[in-house]
Amino acid sequence: MKLTRYNPSTLTDFDSWFRQPFVGFPSAAQVFSDSGSNRLAADIQEDKDNYFAQFEVPGVKKEDLKVELNNQILTISAEKKQTAGDTEQTYSLSRAISVPDGVQGDAISAKLENGILTVTLPKAEHRKPKTIEIA
Amino acid sequence: MTTNCCNPSPTQQTAEPEAAVMKPRYFVDGTQEAYEVRVELPGVPKEGVSINLEENVLTLRAKRTPSALSDWKTLHRELKGLDFLLRLRLNTQVDEEKMTAALDHGILTLKLPVKEAAKPRRIEVQ
Known about the structure:
The structure holds two protein chains of two kinds.
Chain A (H helix, E strand, L loop, with lengths): L12 H7 L6 H6 L10 E5 L3 E7 L8 E6 L2 E12 L2 E12 L10 E5 L2 E7 L13
Antiparallel strand pairs in A: 1-2, 2-7, 3-4, 4-5, 6-7
Chain B lengths: L5 E3 L12 E2 L3 E5 L3 E7 L8 E6 L2 E6 L10 E4 L6 E8 L9 E5 L2 E7 L13
Parallel strand pairs in B: 2-8
Antiparallel strand pairs in B: 1-8, 3-4, 4-10, 5-6, 6-8, 9-10
């Protein structure tokens, strides 16, 4: 696990998601540490309305992917089957990310395309940027 | 039969005047009839793949479609997101005409049938 300097001036809610992605979930931090090769790498992006988490899962079919949200923890598990000659091997890959407040948990969706899994996490209304009219 | 039909071509090291690319993960399987090369190409559509066999060097280029829209703001990045380039020097004669390639779930499967002339042959003693 990496240690990152705590810098309150730049720390927003979402930053803390990544600075301390495993807060309240220490066992996962050990299981899915950086050194583990079974950890799925992730890109996290956002636009005005959503957060997006993307994972590379080449060779994994929809039915071998599991996306779960439990207690603000988003867990992605993938079963990767690899055939070499007559033998088939199965690898398990996974990643757990803690989701910040202000995500509509019941509206999370996931899409698999060309071996890229995109999980869309819609922001709750009160978290979207708002322009306030000056009266 | 061993699976050492293909070795990374030394020409891979030479700098090329093009955008940064990365070498994809790949696996080679072989029988006496054909070699099968499976290459991991996440984010690459069918149209993005080009395969070329010249002087026994197989060159595979794969261009990703951007998986993120341009107005997305990156908060955290672990994936490289680069296009792919793989060069393999084949040390077996391959039947170019019968070469096939299929892309499924981000995995490209190349089938390289061994040329008749290169197959091991048993000669009957008269």
